[in-house]
Amino acid sequence: MTSLCGGNTAAEVFEKGKKIIQILLEAGFAIKKSKVKGPAHEIQFLGVKWQDGRRQIPADVINKITVMSPPTNKKETQAFLGAIGFWRMHIPEYSQIVSPLYLVTHKKNDFH
């Protein structure tokens, strides 16, 4: 199990964390001290970078996407859409941007 808590100050995060740990211990969970992390301004959780209370795409993911070769057929287009689909909530106007790519993946359409 993984849990996050946030707050406006380190003290607030510490107090919330203490309460969470207490509840989990009372419920019979075991907690490794090495897994408990203190307050941070930036973290990576489930592959998503969190900084200043906002989700961001990690720089290494952006680099991997930008160096991908443009798709040359339907299968490559589908693979590209799959690779970036996880990040759609972080890309403004994602559906408008990728709409032409989805069109070429339809059976009746030819890839040009």
Automatic annotation (TrEMBL):
Protein name stated in the entry: Reverse transcriptase/retrotransposon-derived protein RNase H-like domain-containing protein
Q: What is the lineage of its organism?
A: Eukaryota, Metazoa, Chordata, Craniata, Vertebrata
InterPro entries reported in the protein's UniProt record = DNA/RNA_pol_sf (IPR043502), Rev_trsase/Diguanyl_cyclase (IPR043128), Viral_Replic_Matur_Polypro (IPR051320)
